[in-house]
Amino acid sequence: MQTHQSRHLYLQITAMLLMWKKATEQWIAAQNKLLPKCEYQHITFTMPKALCPFFLANRELLNHLSRLAANVLLKTAKKKKIKIGIFTALHTFGQSLNWNTHVHLSVTRGGLSKCKTTWKKVYFTKKKTMPMWRFSIVNLLRTAYKTGKLVIPHQYQNHITDLTSFNRFINPEYNKLWHVHFAKAQPSHHQNVDYLGRYLKRPPLSNSRLLHYDGKEVIFRYIDRKTGKQEKHTSTTFEFIERLIRHIPTKSFNSPYAQVINILIA
């Protein structure tokens, strides 16, 4: 009975992944007609591994991450008195379907003046972006804790028992250099759409990475980011499904942040 049920669930999962891929292709085709034709910068906002469990235990906090990442760049644009275009995609998964909270963001490397007649170039730097992002995340967690709304992940419950121990835990994370990755700027909006489709509509696992299923075990391949080598992950069917479905957004999850400049740049 359990084998039959697990096989049925596995087939449902693989069908869902195929539908996800089709949705991505359709989305890319539609967006090629919409996005401004200009240069784009792609940025990945990550956080220390120790903080990710807080967003699994407090999934409602995921609603804030895309906006916080976008606000870092919007503040810079506001100082320059321009309006920029931004898309974000929140991911909770790593290559092995581990819980790894991060935000993929694409931003125009320029913006419209207030009068909407002039296009001004703008450049964002890691030196200014990282500290602003780091402060935003730590402040989000501190505020949630102080207002009694933060659920402490089970692995930290013996260590974090009051505000003093919470600060003792989070202060070292705040003092670290967080990884905010700036990819090479893309001159074409078509390349930008491909990037957005890959991240905004991407499923946690593609069917092509599934290597084996015998009714009891699932084996899939993944890239170990530390070594750069391809590895295999083996689990029971139910463990695999449990590992996968935790990355499906809840009903209360808000859509990714998007601000599109409503003109076409020649």
Automatic annotation (TrEMBL):
Keywords: Plasmid
Superkingdom of source: Bacteria
Domain Transposase IS801/IS1294: 85-254
Any one Gene Ontology molecular-function term assigned to this protein's record: transposase activity
GO biological process, one term: DNA transposition
Keyword Lyase among record annotations: no
InterPro entries: Transposase_32 (IPR007069)
Protein name, as recorded: Transposase
Native source species: Piscirickettsia salmonis
Highest classification ranks of the organism: Bacteria, Pseudomonadati, Pseudomonadota, Gammaproteobacteria, Thiotrichales
